[in-house]
Amino acid sequence: MTSGSNGSHRAFMGVCITLCVILSLTLYVGWRWYFDSIANRNTLLDLAQKAEKRVQDLENLGISFEAATTEAAPASTLPKILAGGDESAKTDPLTPTSPAQSASQQDALYPAESNIKPLPLLESSEEVVQALAVLDQYWKTESWQGRLPLVAHSERVTALMKDYYETQGAKDPVPGALISKARYDIDGTEILYFSYSCSRPTGSLEIAMPRDPQGKFVIDWESLTGYGEISFQDFRSKRPAKPVLMRAYVRLFEYYNFEFSDSKKYLCIKLMSENGDNSIYAYCERGTKLSRWIETDLASTGPTEFKGYTLLISFPPNAQSNQCVNLDKVVAQRWLQVP
Q1: Using CA atoms, how far apart are residues 90 and 166, in angstroms rounded to an integer?
Q2: Strands of 204-210's sheet, edge to edge?
Q3: What is the pLDDT of residues 126-170, one digit of tens each?
Q4: By C-alpha distance, which of 190, 218, 220 is closest to 117?
Q5: For the chain, which residues make up each domain, given as ranges?
Q6: What are φ and ψ of residue 257, in 5° steps?
Q7: Does domain 239-332 have CATH number 2.40.50?
Q8: Got the DSSP string for 180-209?
């Protein structure tokens, strides 16, 4: 064999050995990666099983699992039944202003300011479990009379519930999945708040729960249902000239017709019923304190966003239509009422 042949043979063997070493290393690394992946997967499955068991344990307590923590941080923005304008100073809810407030504030055509503070919420606390149990019992109770022990201010609200269910023929909104929960202090009144998915115009059903005299959390029924003294349909058909208390979703709008055809004279807002089935347009004169307050408060609503207002509205004398009304007063920037 020639020296050239020996050199070629040694080179070939060197290449083969190098390839074998590379292949061995590749197989070794690959097998290590495979077995490490299996081990990591088993670890993740074990953690997932533990997390699932915790979810089931919390659900057995009536608590929805959120973010694997028992201390829920306050929401960054207040819900629509609570919020209105600047979050650092909120408007007083439906009930009359306190004696310390001036007579001018009580007579104002728009709400005065109050203080709302987010509070920490311990989801696994006995009080939260009790509140969720009250909500569950409310939805399972078919008669409105059976629901009376579960609602706030039941003595006063009894007549309103009878009117709502028997006279107006209205029904409760249907809750979907629980979206969020929070806790607030509103002018010294503690409120538990729950939000559920819903077919309402805002996409959510918001429920506020104050304490009853015995300290138990109960449901603020008026804000839950969006109760008004008359249904939107009856309001449009009867055309009352006397101001009527209504709860509605509102936003700025551009519709000028009939008695309110002058867009330079009047400011228009659209009012939508709590279920979104009916709407009307309310007007006040531009340049007034009420119109300036509304423009400021509703500036962020845009073409589709709504806020929940409690209002007094009425038809003008000899109304030319059933859809254009006077905006007499904004009672509250929200649907909730507190003492």
Answers
A1: 35
A2: 116-119, 178-186, 189-197, 204-210
A3: 999 999 999 999 999 999 999 999 999 999 999 999 999 999 999
A4: 190
A5: 1-60, 71-225, 239-332
A6: -160, 165
A7: yes
A8: EEEEEEETTEEEEEEEEE-SSTTSEEEEEE
